[in-house]
Write a structure and sequence with these properties.
Layout lengths: L2 H24 L3 H20 L3
Helix pairs in contact: 1-2
Length: about 50
């Protein structure tokens, strides 16, 4: 996996951890989860678009 795709994957996993911790501590926030889903979809797109 190239550097940019790896960085996106790490940010996505980190965002998932942050979103989960926020939800546990403060309650669910729809915008937070929406932003995480968008980030995950962009990450999937970057990984899928990389040269093989």
């Amino acid at each position: 996996m190239p550097g940019s795709a790896r960085t996106m994957a790490v940010c996505t996993v980190g965002g998932l951890v942050v979103a989960t911790a926020y939800t546990v501590a403060m309650g669910a926030n729809g915008w937070l989860w929406f932003c995480w889903v968008v980030l995950a979809l962009v990450t999937i797109g970057v990984v899928a678009a990389r040269p093989v």
